[in-house]
Prior knowledge:
The chain is an all-beta fold.
Amino acid sequence: VQLQASGGGLVQAGGSLRLSCAASGRTLSGYGMGWFRQAPGKEREFVAGIDRSGLSISYADSVKGRFAISRDNAKNTVSLQMNSLKFEDTAVYYCAAKYGSMWSDDLRVYNYWGLGTQVTVSS
Protein backbone atom coordinates (compact mmCIF):
# COMPACT_ATOMS: atom_id res chain seq x y z
CA VAL A 1 0.00 0.00 0.00
CA GLN A 2 1.27 3.48 -0.85
CA LEU A 3 0.58 6.31 1.57
CA GLN A 4 0.65 10.01 0.80
CA ALA A 5 0.38 12.60 3.53
CA SER A 6 -0.73 16.12 2.70
CA GLY A 7 -2.07 19.25 4.32
CA GLY A 8 1.04 20.54 6.00
CA GLY A 9 2.11 24.15 5.86
CA LEU A 10 3.06 27.25 7.79
CA VAL A 11 0.68 28.41 10.50
CA GLN A 12 0.85 30.80 13.41
CA ALA A 13 0.76 29.51 16.95
CA GLY A 14 -2.82 28.93 17.99
CA GLY A 15 -3.89 28.09 14.47
CA SER A 16 -5.13 24.87 12.93
CA LEU A 17 -4.21 22.47 10.19
CA ARG A 18 -5.79 19.30 8.91
CA LEU A 19 -3.51 16.57 7.63
CA SER A 20 -4.75 13.84 5.35
CA CYS A 21 -3.26 10.49 4.50
CA ALA A 22 -4.47 8.93 1.28
CA ALA A 23 -3.81 5.33 0.41
CA SER A 24 -3.53 3.62 -2.92
CA GLY A 25 -2.91 0.09 -3.95
CA ARG A 26 -4.90 -1.48 -1.18
CA THR A 27 -7.77 -0.61 1.11
CA LEU A 28 -6.82 0.79 4.51
CA SER A 29 -9.76 -0.84 6.25
CA GLY A 30 -7.66 -3.80 7.36
CA TYR A 31 -4.86 -1.76 8.90
CA GLY A 32 -4.19 -0.04 12.16
CA MET A 33 -3.04 3.50 11.41
CA GLY A 34 -0.78 5.97 13.10
CA TRP A 35 0.53 9.49 12.77
CA PHE A 36 4.10 10.18 13.81
CA ARG A 37 6.26 13.26 13.67
CA GLN A 38 9.93 14.06 13.57
CA ALA A 39 11.39 17.41 14.52
CA PRO A 40 14.90 18.41 13.47
CA GLY A 41 17.50 16.64 15.55
CA LYS A 42 14.92 14.50 17.31
CA GLU A 43 13.68 10.96 16.98
CA ARG A 44 10.43 10.15 15.27
CA GLU A 45 7.64 10.06 17.82
CA PHE A 46 4.10 8.79 18.08
CA VAL A 47 1.35 11.39 17.76
CA ALA A 48 -1.91 9.47 17.37
CA GLY A 49 -3.23 6.07 16.44
CA ILE A 50 -6.56 4.62 15.35
CA ASP A 51 -7.72 1.07 14.94
CA ARG A 52 -9.38 -0.27 11.82
CA SER A 53 -12.87 0.39 13.11
CA GLY A 54 -12.14 3.89 14.35
CA LEU A 55 -13.37 3.00 17.83
CA SER A 56 -9.99 2.71 19.52
CA ILE A 57 -7.93 5.88 19.46
CA SER A 58 -4.84 7.00 21.30
CA TYR A 59 -2.86 10.23 21.53
CA ALA A 60 0.50 11.27 22.82
CA ASP A 61 0.16 13.30 25.99
CA SER A 62 1.63 16.31 24.23
CA VAL A 63 -1.28 16.54 21.78
CA LYS A 64 -4.23 15.33 23.84
CA GLY A 65 -7.14 17.72 23.70
CA ARG A 66 -5.71 19.52 20.68
CA PHE A 67 -5.40 16.88 17.95
CA ALA A 68 -8.04 14.50 16.63
CA ILE A 69 -7.43 11.47 14.45
CA SER A 70 -10.14 9.99 12.27
CA ARG A 71 -10.50 7.66 9.35
CA ASP A 72 -12.86 7.13 6.46
CA ASN A 73 -12.43 3.59 5.21
CA ALA A 74 -14.80 4.20 2.31
CA LYS A 75 -12.54 6.99 1.06
CA ASN A 76 -9.35 5.18 2.07
CA THR A 77 -8.13 8.13 4.10
CA VAL A 78 -6.94 8.93 7.60
CA SER A 79 -6.94 12.48 8.91
CA LEU A 80 -5.34 14.41 11.72
CA GLN A 81 -7.06 17.60 12.80
CA MET A 82 -4.59 19.78 14.65
CA ASN A 83 -5.88 22.70 16.69
CA SER A 84 -4.22 25.16 19.05
CA LEU A 85 -0.91 24.51 17.39
CA LYS A 86 2.26 25.30 19.29
CA PHE A 87 5.77 26.06 18.13
CA GLU A 88 6.87 22.68 19.46
CA ASP A 89 4.47 20.94 17.07
CA THR A 90 6.79 21.91 14.23
CA ALA A 91 7.93 18.72 12.54
CA VAL A 92 7.54 16.50 9.53
CA TYR A 93 4.41 14.46 10.01
CA TYR A 94 4.14 10.91 8.72
CA CYS A 95 1.24 8.55 8.42
CA ALA A 96 1.84 4.85 8.75
CA ALA A 97 -0.08 1.60 8.39
CA LYS A 98 0.43 -1.68 10.18
CA TYR A 99 -0.95 -5.12 9.67
CA GLY A 100 -3.66 -6.05 12.11
CA SER A 101 -6.56 -4.08 13.44
CA MET A 102 -4.96 -2.14 16.27
CA TRP A 103 -2.84 0.99 16.37
CA SER A 104 0.52 1.02 18.12
CA ASP A 105 2.75 3.75 19.52
CA ASP A 106 5.82 1.76 18.46
CA LEU A 107 6.98 2.92 15.07
CA ARG A 108 8.94 -0.30 14.56
CA VAL A 109 5.81 -2.35 14.02
CA TYR A 110 4.43 -0.26 11.18
CA ASN A 111 4.75 -1.78 7.74
CA TYR A 112 4.06 1.15 5.43
CA TRP A 113 5.03 4.79 5.64
CA GLY A 114 4.14 7.89 3.70
CA LEU A 115 6.76 10.45 2.73
CA GLY A 116 5.67 13.00 5.27
CA THR A 117 4.37 16.54 5.21
CA GLN A 118 6.04 19.52 6.84
CA VAL A 119 4.20 21.42 9.55
CA THR A 120 5.78 24.66 10.69
CA VAL A 121 4.29 26.68 13.52
CA SER A 122 5.55 30.20 13.96
CA SER A 123 5.64 31.61 17.45
